[in-house]
Amino acid sequence: MGFFDRLANVWKGFVSLWISDIESRNPEAVYEAAIDERVRKHKELKKAVSGIVYLRNKLTAEMEEKERNLREIMTQLPVAIDEGEDEVAMVLIQKKDELTADIDRISAELAKVSTQAEEAKTGLIQFQGEIEKLKREKEAMLAKKANAEARIQIQGTLDGLSTDADIKALDNVRENIDKLQAEADIGAEIQGDSLDAKLAKIKDKAATSSARSQLDDMKRQLAAQRAGASEAAAGVKKTI
Predict the structure, then answer these.
(1) What is the rounded distance in angstroms from the CA atom of residue 34 to the CA atom of residue 158?
(2) What is the DSSP letter of 37?
(3) Residue 191 — pLDDT band, cuts 50, 70, 90?
(4) CATH for 3-174?
(5) Position 34 pLDDT exceeds 70
(6) Inter-axis angle of helices 86-192 and 27-82, nearest 10
(7) Considering the entire predicted model, what is its pTM?
(8) Backbone conformation region of residue 84, classed left if phi is above 0, alpha if psi is from -120 to 50, else beta
(9) 66 with 103: CB under 8 angstroms?
(10) What angle do CA 105, 108, 113 make, to 5 degrees?
């Protein structure tokens, strides 16, 4: 195989793939083209069938005319014989034989053509049925395609929302909780360093210092009282 032959094969393969891709992405157009082609062939077949039917009708009319003429001759022939018109009778007999032969010939042709016409009509009806079947198939397949595309789209949406969406939602909740906790912590920290807090601490320390001073004074007073009581008891013992 030469270079150009191989190149031609590659090009044919490329064109075939390209056409296949277009067909897969445009199924409705493919169905419409197939239906249009069948409709065109149906018209051609119908035209051919009409020609056969025309020939059948023509043979039928011709045979009916021959049979009518034969009946007339068969009516005239006895009269000619009765009247002694031998020459007329001979002519009528010749016409009778010719008409009989024609009728036999036409009858055979008519039988053949009638069979062809019936077969052609049956084929035409079947072909019309195939067109209608293809139209129904087109509607069913396009509906099936639309349903499949919708299911794929819904599944893709669900897949996109499942894991990623759950993780993102949890991260958002955790982040918001951490922010609330930080807000609460910073409030407590700021409150501890505020002026009111410092004043409260000083007041607590002052109250504690005052209580401690009073406690020390009370302890000294009690000690002095005990000491005075001890000295008085010792003086009484010396006097005795």
Answers:
(1) 37
(2) H
(3) low
(4) 1.10.287
(5) yes
(6) 170
(7) 0.47
(8) left
(9) yes
(10) 120
